[in-house]
Design goal:
Elements (H helix, E strand, L loop, with lengths): L13 H6 L3 H12 L1 H12 L2 H14 L4 H13 L3 H14 L5 H17 L3 H14 L4 H13 L4 H20 L4 H17 L3 H14 L4 H13 L3 H14 L4 H13 L4 H9 L5
Length: about 280
């Protein structure tokens, strides 16, 4: 994370997919669900009828030609359906076809594009998009968090991870100062904890990831992150509980499903083999 009061944020339900960025994402998600044509298109995408969904999206955009907000809604709808490829296409079109849009509108489109690219594994261009969003929306904690999460989720780079910690901490402080909800702040704590974990700061990471998981109890990415911290700490039963909860929340969550299978294998290892495999565990 459409988040349209602020930016967007990033995760697995739309809360996380759009939120790992600020309150604006939540409002955008609400607009998607409250707009019949968008709600219908999302259902068509989820059922595999891409052609019908695209026809509905394009019809909406044709009726609201030149509206950056319409592109924000369509790109967000694609993310709700977990079609990040289409979300990237519509976000790029929106930026290209609405040159007169204001900074907030383009900032939201850049945030959506960054989230989509990150989910598609295009980390470098994801970071570029989140940097562009930050330039346009410097006072949105969700934008800071999205950039932090992009740094934290990209292939390991110590300088980027340290910057992720700095940005996520700033996002938390900014969100608290703005009176944002505990759920939004928990998203930012998850980002902070994930970056800390990848830096090897296990104790600090576990504290933040636990707070996030307690608040966002059904968000599979959050549960996956805490499970990984537990695995590194050798707390395998607790890790398994978190992974099982993540898979129940999203049966298609590939990383959680893979980690759960690996954990079940770990439980059958001898202690030396198990410890060696835990040390080799990759947060990605």
């Amino acid at each position: 994370m459409t988040r349209v009061k602020g930016a967007l944020a990033t995760g697995a339900a739309v809360l996380w997919a759009l939120a790992v960025a600020g309150c604006g994402v939540m409002e955008t998600v609400g607009q998607v669900r409250d707009t019949p044509i968008l709600r219908s298109a999302v259902e068509k995408l989820k059922s595999g009828d891409e052609a019908a969904a695209v026809k509905q999206f394009d019809s909406l955009l044709a009726r609201q030609r030149g509206s950056a907000d319409a592109y924000v809604l369509v790109a967000a709808a694609c993310q709700e359906a977990r079609r990040f490829d289409l979300s990237a296409i519509y976000a790029e079109r929106g930026l290209r076809e609405t040159p007169g849009a204001d900074a907030a509108q383009h900032g939201r489109l850049h945030s959506l594009l960054g989230i989509a690219r990150q989910q598609l594994g295009d980390f470098e261009r994801s970071i570029e998009s989140h940097q562009a969003a930050r330039h346009l929306l410097p006072d949105d904690p969700g934008v800071l968090n999205n950039l932090a999460y992009a740094y934290a989720d990209a292939p390991d780079n110590t300088e980027r991870l340290q910057e992720a910690v700095r940005l996520a901490t700033a996002a938390i402080e900014m969100a608290v100062g703005k009176g944002r909800t505990s759920e939004e702040i928990a998203i930012y704590r998850d980002t902070l904890g994930w970056a800390q974990l990848k830096l090897g700061l296990l104790d600090q990471a576990t504290v933040n990831l636990t707070i996030a998981a307690d608040t966002l109890a059904n968000e599979p990415d959050v549960l996956f992150h805490l499970a990984h911290a537990y695995t590194i700490a050798g707390r395998l039963p607790e890790a398994r509980v978190m992974l099982e909860r993540a898979v129940r929340a999203d049966p298609k969550h590939a990383r959680a499903s893979r980690a759960l299978a690996e954990l079940k294998a770990l439980e059958g290892d001898t202690a030396p083999d198990r410890d060696a495999r835990i040390r080799r565990a990759d947060p990605k």
